[in-house]
Amino acid sequence: MNGFKNAIELLQPKLRQTFERLSPTDIDAINEIRLRLGKHISVSTTSGNRFITEAGELTDDCTFSLITESSDIEYTFKNAFSYSLHSYSKELSMGYITVGSGNRVGICGTAVTDASDFRSVETIKYVSSINIRIAREKRGYAEKLFNSCMSLKPAGILIIGAPATGKTTLLRDTARLLGEQYRVSLIDEQNEISATHRGSSQNDIGELTDVFVGYPKHIGISTAVRVMSPDVIVVDEIGSDEELKALEFAFHSGVTLITAVHSESFEEAKEKRVVKALLSESAFQYAAVLKKDYEYEIISVD
Q: Taking Cα atoms as reference points, which of 39, 23, 29, 30 lies closest to residue 7?
């Protein structure tokens, strides 16, 4: 509930009041709130995309749903960046910022590129879309995975799922459970897992967990191995060559890997080059394949 509350606090008061009228069941189902200039306000839920009416009801028919006005975009955009855009130039160039409760606000608009390198985005202007992704701290979510695969010692785990199926939520709770017994290094590039504010994690990620916030994943992984001697490294959304090299370095240094990848199934995931390489080295013993409604299937990959 805190994630949802913090998310709607970014909205204009009138729009915020509309979201407050939603039923508890609808609130629990919402993963994202999306504002698109001149288009109907939508939410991403566990059952798909829906729209919201002024009465505070979710509907599949956008006919009577609310439309995003320019003032909605401007208010939410400035609120997310604490009315101090110059202080968040890095976040603006990346197109997102992490706010209260670990929620991530993504922005879409017209890119202003570096004059010397058009491939490098300096900032964004004329914001046209905003996506507020709600972080949910779901304690107990990883207990089935922990009890089935790691009751005696940590095991290499690959978490597989489509966007908004709960990969980050499962990683967070896995870090919490492992971090009560083992030295865990959490590589939290986007600050979605720990929701760290001024050095203090706002989410429960375990007593023995050290957090590397804002580090590019490959640098965070390598640094963690060298300076924190972790038993386990937890990192989200792997995919690049640099990340593969860093993960291989950690694995061959005796560190257990727990990570996630975007895929619909294990069969699809194992064809990704980074995953295929790590599987060939036996870096993972199990895969957790996420389904709808925060359910997942555990597969042995040995």
A: 30
Quickly list H helices, 150-293: 167-178, 217-228, 241-252, 266-269, 273-280
177-233 pLDDT per residue, tens: 999 999 999 999 988 899 887 788 888 999 999 999 989 999 999 999 999 999 999
Which helix (H) or strand (E) segment is 35 a member of? strand 30-36
Residues 30 and 44 sit within 8 Å (Cβ to Cβ) = yes
> Alpha helix locations (H) across the chain?
2-8, 13-20, 24-29, 70-80, 89-94, 143-149, 167-178, 217-228, 241-252, 266-269, 273-280
For the question of whether the overall pTM of this predicted structure is more than 0.85, the answer is no
Take residue 275 and report the two structure tokens written for it. 């995953």
HSE value, Cβ hemisphere, 13 Å, CA-based, for 19: 24
C-alpha angle 31-36-41 in degrees, rounded to nearest 5: 55
CA distance 255 to 186: 12
pLDDT tens-digit map of 45-104: 978 899 999 999 999 999 999 999 999 999 999 999 988 877 788 888 888 888 877 788
CA–CA separation, 178 vs 181, rounded Å? 6
Question: Strand, helix or coil at 82?
Answer: coil
